[in-house]
Amino acid sequence: MSKVEPSRRVFVAMSGGVDSSVAAALFKERGFEVRGVHIKMWSDPEIPCNFKEDRYDAMRVAAKLDIPFETWDFTKEYKEAVVEYMIREYAVGRTPNPDVMCNNRIKFGVFLNRALESGADYIATGHYVRLMRKSQIPNHKSQTNSKIQIPNYKLLSAKDINKDQSYFLWILTQDQLKRCLFPIGEYTKPQVREMARKFGLSTAEKPDSQGICFIGEIDMREFLKKYIPESRGKILTTSGKAIGEHEGLPFYTIGQREGLGIGGGIPYYVAEKDFSTNILKVAEGPYDEKLFSQELIAADINWIAGKEAKLPLKCTARIRYRQPLQSCKAYKIKDTYQNKYGTGQAKYKIRFEEPQRAVTPGQSIVFYRDREMLGGGIII
Questions:
Q1: Angle at Cα 245 formed by Cα 244 and Cα 246, nearest 5°?
Q2: Cis bond before residue 312 (omega within 30° of 0)
Q3: H or E element: which one contains 236?
Q4: pLDDT digit string (tens) for 256-277?
């Protein structure tokens, strides 16, 4: 964890899970002035959600640590910034990443801003990621050499590579990072649970949360049907054979296998959604070439360093959470683009050394150099 004067005041976003609980305990142990904050987010009133239980767990941990505790209601902000965004994206055929938007607009947006207005010097979360500050970079005095440019803050993947959450934090800026602390990234999950036991925290054995709270126990398609009307159409194989009927293109995502309602013994995977004809095209088996792409276009790029990387950029990247890193090269594009989703100014073309399976518009592509996360963008 970054070394900061222990007299500083830190507001910890306490979800009610073990990771943020241990984050708060570590700061208390190290002499920080700590305040716990539980963020109330929107949930569908018709779907069971564990908000009350999670809040109670966070309160119990705060009481154990003898730190102030508050609940901040961001229901309205969450619904507008995350839920409505997600529905809009699905409606036009993209597959959004609500975790990235939640981090961008809620945890490191309205929560960070309100914490600073309330007197916080820093906010902290239980994300598995490591933050490196300028003072921690070896030989940082060499920045006086004009040929060496070192940003103030770098994000590194977590020590526990299986829990690393850097993929969801590519949207952060230098201004946000200077106010953030990520103490859990230096530890593995078993170490975090062991520390929770040592601190006597009631969340020590609590299972990790799964999925999105407002979706609850139903699947995404059932949730989306409440907001997006069905529009049935044909399902064709990539070779043009009609094999079934879909319920509406927004309810499917590239690479999807389950829930297609197609029998016959062959595993089918969504390969393309053609809104002009309302046809869902599926690949026949996991190795159908139509399911793979060696290039993609990405927009809305954010570089953690605060400035564009030197291009063309040879690095590694992933196009979905926990995907093994893939070697690639990124190039700047100056031309406008036009595709089935609209037009705009394209930013980068990324070419991979190996074809990538199920490149999905709306998802994030995130760039790395070794363990450093360089930034990312949205696949279009």
A1: 130
A2: yes
A3: strand 233-237
A4: 999 998 877 889 999 999 999 9
**Structure tokens that stand for 41 in this block:** 């987010």
Give the single-character DSSP code of 82: I
Q: Which is catalytic among the residues 49, 180, 213, 315?
A: 213
Residues 24, 36 contacting (CB under 8 angstroms): yes
Residue of 102, 180, 315, 328 with catalytic role: 102
Residue 296 host element (H or E): strand 292-303
- Provide the pLDDT for residue 117: 98
Q: How many domains does the chain have?
A: 3
Q: Both 337 and 296 in a single domain?
A: yes
Structure token digits, residue 216: 């609850």
Q: Other C-beta atoms within 10 Å of 72: how many?
A: 16
Instruction: Say which CATH number the domain at 252 has.
Output: 2.30.30.280
User: Does the pLDDT value for residue 92 go beyond 90?
Assistant: yes
- Planar angle of CA 189, 123, 378, nearest 5 degrees: 75
Residue of 282, 262, 281, 292 lying closest to 352 (CA atoms): 292
How many C-beta atoms surround the C-beta of residue 274 within 10 A?
A: 15
The DSSP code sequence of 308-364 is PPPSSEEEEEESSTTPPPEEEEEEE--SEEEETTEEEE--EEEEEEEEEE---TTSE
Q: What is the pLDDT of residues 315-350, one digit of tens each?
A: 999 999 999 999 999 999 866 666 655 566 668 999
Residue 158 tokens read as 């977590």
* Interval 184-208: pLDDT, tens: 999 999 999 999 999 999 999 999 8
**In the predicted structure, residue 113 carries a pLDDT above the cut 50:** yes
Distance between CA atoms of residues 308 and 295, nearest Å: 20
Give yes or no: 102 in active site: yes
Domain identity same for 281 and 295: no
pLDDT computed for residue 283 by the predictor? 97
Say yes or no: 250 and 101 in one domain: no
Percent of the chain exceeding pLDDT 90 equals 81
- The verdict on whether 213 is a catalytic residue reads yes
Q: Which domain holds residue 242?
A: 230-287
Distance CA 295, CA 186 (A): 34
